[in-house]
Amino acid sequence: MEQYKQEFIDFMVESKVLKFGDFTLKSGRKSPFFMNAGAYVTGTQLRKLGEYYAKAIHDNFGLDFDVLFGPAYKGIPLSVCTAMAISELYGKDVRYCSNRKEVKDHGDVGILLGSKLEDGDRVVMIEDVTTSGKSIEETYPIVTAQAKVEIKGLVVSLNRMEKGKTEQSALQEISETYGFPTAAIVSMAEVTEYLYGKEKDGKVLIDDTMKASIDAYYAQYGAN
Q: Which are the catalytic amino acids?
């Protein structure tokens, strides 16, 4: 596993973004782990988060693109901090763009904020986590209605590796439905492998009991 992936897993835990226990998800599923990207709240956390996203984008899609698009609302700060990190790490200037929930009819009018989209733009979409793919269902038509753009891919922070609407994961379904590649900074399999039996701040987050709970969860909800 790449060094930045190991660092990102530690970062999620330290930022209290990734937690282990007993959680009920929006889908109604009972999960032994939970990720809340809304817990990234400080300047230092956002700077680091942007760097991890930038490295994942570089590794999976390269830097041959023009715009980072982050769906409202959580995708807005993600697109901003990652665009800054790409400039800092790789010397590549990309524009950021997000959608508004409501169309603005005065001043800076329209449904987009940040950069406008132009014909020929190559776009990487960025999200925190995708469980059902609903966000992309809503935002993909908005993006493609603005201009003749090419979607280079979608990157999320954590691939939960769960069944979506079919036996495939949400990321696999998105890729097949829309025809562009998807990637994550880390997968839950990598998280489990890295943290299993590892003591952190005097506590083992994934001990044998938690590992058994995670295995049972994926036996029921894991994607093919």
A: 104, 106
